Amino acid sequence: MSRIGASKDIEYRTITGISELHTAVDLQRVVWGQESVTSMHQMAAAILHGGTVIGAFHEGELVGFCYGFAGFDGKHSFLGSHMMAILPDYRDQGIGMRLKLEQRLWAIQYGYSKLVWTYDPFESRNAYLNICKLGGTISKYLPSFYGNDSSGVPTDRFLVEWDICSEHVEKAITQRHDHSEQAESLYPSLITCDIHEDQVTSVCLNVNDPLSILLSRSGGTIPIPRQAQELKRQQPQLFAEWHRYVRDMCTEAFDLQYEVTSFIKGPGAIHHYVLEQKKGE
Length: 281
Fold this sequence. Notes:
alpha+beta; 9 helices; 12 strands; disordered N terminus
């Protein structure tokens, strides 16, 4: 199957039939591996009880999909957007963004006002999509959410909240939201990175009490590596140390009523999350 020009020929629609749900299971195995697969039975049950599966089709073949189920936090209902998978040959064509927008439209039609999902804080592509292009906000850190991965690293996750009817989200998805790189210069970094020849050689906390800097400036930035998986393979000790610093700084900042409001893609070895105090706090 050719991907040339595919982005212009993608059909998006909900999936309800058993055969197509089986195909979605097969697609998950290709993208995420057997351990992360959501079964056909689970997706069918979720659809029955307020969830949805939305597929992206090229020439009649499923090339990507997103799956969400009904959730409740004790006060409000929401759609838990649990899984998205796109075949490797169809990535970087805007399909992921479009699937989330289709999911948003479906959710609004069925009475939801919020979607939530998790992702790895070190996955910069997901960070940019979730925060800058979709307008999601983050104020909760989930340590070891799925235990440890195959290399023994804790599967920490950010919890993204997507207030799909808000002005903030509307500005983001229509590309009218300002994610100015000035934030990187306005706010200090809570973690210092030593860089040599475009490679990070060491990381450490910015002074002994970086949170005092955060509080004094009403904001701060947290760097992550541009090539996190490569760093994880080649320098596991450095990655583990960086991972621990990000966990500690985010957890403490969120406890102090800060949230992630933006993500800045740098030209070199690192990108930055922007932390700012919650409005009204």
